Amino acid sequence: MDLGSHDPAPDRTVLSLTMGFLASAAIGAVVRLDIADHIAQQPRTAADLAELTGVDATGLQRTLRFLAGSGTFYEDGSGRFHLTAAAERLRTGAPQSLRDAVVFLTEPMFWQAAGNFGASLRRGSSTLDEIFGVPLWEHLAAHPDAAAIFDAGMVSYSAPQDAAIADTFDVSGYRRIVDVGGGRGGLLSLLLSRNPQATGLLYDRAPVLGTHLLDIPELAGRWTVEAGDFFESVPADGDLYVLKHILHDWNDDECIRILRRCREVMLPGSRLLVAESIAPPPNTPHYVWSLDLMMLAALTGRERTREEFEQLFEAAELALVRVQTTASYSSMAIMEVVPCERTVASEETGR
Fold it and tell me: Which ranges carry the O-methyltransferase dimerisation domain (predicted)?
């Protein structure tokens, strides 16, 4: 073998993937130290930041240089670190901040899920229920502190997607929007702001609804909240139902149950908006593949292709009539779905 002709690129690919856990650990630690908030005040050296945060200066410098290598921070010639566009997303309360999402995604439960990935692979689903003794949702219900981190993380993670959906989908003409499993109501709030004539109902678990985001002057008198279980029932009297990033949490049988509950209450002329990332063709680099492994490790769900979504809809007596893509980081797609007995031509162009 001629070692002089050895191509190092495959080596870097394999070893970078293998050590990827260090990137998660580094960004999670830096966010918890509020490093981006400190640098936002002025560029700072690692020694300055270490003094502010009470950590070792050399260790922090090494961590920030690692993150600067991926473009998350920038180190100038005098050793001061600056924010990049990516680091701006790590600031507390900044527009489109992902800080709480980073905290949530680097919580111990996800390290446990990742550490048990081999067992999830053999089983075909998450082992968190074995680790916690109950399914994830029951664990969160019994641990308010963990649930608060989860909910704040989901708001942060969802905000860019919510904005992209509201910018893409024309909500005018709908009178009552029901957001099924809508969390704290970030998307519903945006949809209602786009259509001042509409009212909205936020439907989710009671603990989540206690911290909803709808109580703002602009939406006064136009919203209600209702606690419930979307496996058992969905509120009636909506002409637009919304399922955003719900189906990817669940296996096929569970998804069909949720879709059937929606189908049962849909009125003539009503629509179901399903917002999910649609898996691209094989061998295509895409964020959705990481999300798919997260579902395997932490929940019972998965990411799906368009054809797989259509199979779910058909099993629930629903039909896909239109697909729109959004400008979100996850390439979130908006799928418009109607009851099957309404035979309508596909409204999507270019299919």
Answer: 16-90
Q: Which token pair is 90?
A: 């790590």
pLDDT at 2: 58
Q: What is the pLDDT of residue 328?
A: 83
Please report the pLDDT score of residue 221 as a whole number. 94
The pLDDT value given to residue 347? 45
Give alpha helix (H) positions in 57-143.
Answer: 57-68, 85-88, 99-105, 108-115, 117-123, 128-132, 136-142
Cα gap 128→134, rounded to integer Å: 8
Domain residue extents for the chain: 8-93, 112-339
Whether residue 74 contacts residue 84, with contact meaning beta carbons closer than 8 Å, is answered with yes
Structure confidence at residue 4 (pLDDT): 62
- Catalytic residue set: 248
- Helix%, strand%, coil% for the chain, nearest 5: 50, 15, 35
CATH tag, 112-339: 3.40.50.150
Q: What is the pLDDT of residue 330?
A: 80
Q: Which CATH class is domain 8-93?
A: mainly alpha
Q: What per-residue confidence (pLDDT) applies to 327?
A: 86
Per DSSP, 248 falls in state G
Question: Nearest 5 degrees, angle CA 311-CA 317-CA 322?
Answer: 65
Distance CA 40, CA 300 (A): 39
Residue ranges in the chain whose pLDDT is less than 50: 1, 343-351
Residue 331 exposed, middle or buried by CB count within 10 Å (0-12, 13-18, 19+): middle
Of the candidates 325, 321, 320, the one whose C-alpha atom is nearest the C-alpha of residue 310 is: 320
| Cα 35 from Cα 50, distance rounded (Å) | 9
For residue 346, what pLDDT is reported?
A: 42
Q: What tokens were used for 57?
A: 């200066």
